[in-house]
Design a protein that fits this description.
The protein is elongated, with a radius of gyration of 21 Å. The chain has 8 helices and 17 strands. 33% of the residues lie in helices and 32% in strands. Keywords: DNA-binding, Phosphoprotein. This is DNA-binding response regulator. Pfam families: LytTR, Response_reg.
């Protein structure tokens, strides 16, 4: 059974191009309609309840976020599209919502569609869009991150994270409240996401919130002692950069 989709895109050529990509590479998607502005998109979503919406961020005098704020429900998966590294991309990433940079690559499109269909198939209802709206209204340092666990999805403020520890394909987040959350993503993915937000990868298997470093020990090559009293070995190749960051303490 095909998933009903809506394309929201103000440029006709881009609408047609994405529709053609979906027809050729995503046979499990039925493009039920295409909208070129906020009013058309809101009307179709409220009337026909698509399962997936491909949402252009920039819509002439409005944005795709205006569409999402005006619809009466959010019981659909969203895949954002944008022609450049939009200011909102970080907020989208932290909310665990997919986006595609134009020109759209068919393999990335297939991956995003497959992920959306999996979410639909397990009826995974969550508050990712609510988290996105909150992150869009905050400075980046106040973002929360969406963490998918075996039990569901948790939304965790960055300032509550002390450190991250990798174990194979899994990453465990250690929090200020002494709780921990394990997710099935490797540490490299979070390194790319968190490095610009006051986090630093000290070691192959450890990343720390620099605000939560209590002290540094010189013994045995060096350790960072965290506010939860964990002692994290410092990789020799990371030591100079870590010392420089802590000396500036611009976090």
């Amino acid at each position: 059974m095909k998933c009903k989709a809506l394309i929201v895109e103000d440029e006709m050529l881009n609408r047609v191009f994405l529709k053609n990509l979906l027809e050729e590479f995503c046979p499990n998607i039925e493009v039920a309609a295409m909208a070129e502005n906020v009013e058309e998109a809101v009307t179709f979503i409220n009337t026909h309840s698509p399962e997936i919406v491909f949402m252009d961020i920039e819509l002439q005098t409005a944005t795709g976020f205006d569409v999402l704020q005006q619809v009466t429900h959010h019981s659909f998966e969203v895949i954002f599209t944008t022609a450049y590294d939009h200011y909102a991309i970080k907020a989208i990433k932290f909310s665990a919502i997919d986006y595609l940079l134009k020109p759209i690559n068919f393999e990335e499109l297939q991956q995003a569609v497959d992920k959306a269909i999996r979410s639909i198939s397990v009826k995974e209802k969550d508050n990712r869009l609510e988290l996105l709206f909150k992150n869009l209204q905050r400075p980046p340092d106040d973002f929360s991150i969406s963490l998918s666990t075996s039990e569901g999805i948790e939304f965790v403020p960055l300032n509550q994270i002390i450190r991250l520890e990798a174990k194979g394909p899994y990453t465990t987040f250690f929090m200020k409240n002494a709780n921990s959350v394990m997710v099935s993503k490797n540490l490299k993915e979070y390194e790319l996401l968190l490095t610009d937000h006051g986090f630093f990868r000290l070691h192959n298997s450890h990343m720390v919130n620099l605000r939560e470093v209590k002290k540094m020990l010189k013994a045995d090559g060096g350790y960072a002692v965290m506010n939860d009293d964990a002692m994290i070995a410092i990789s020799p190749r990371k030591k100079d950069e870590f010392v420089a960051l802590m000396a500036r303490r611009l976090v």
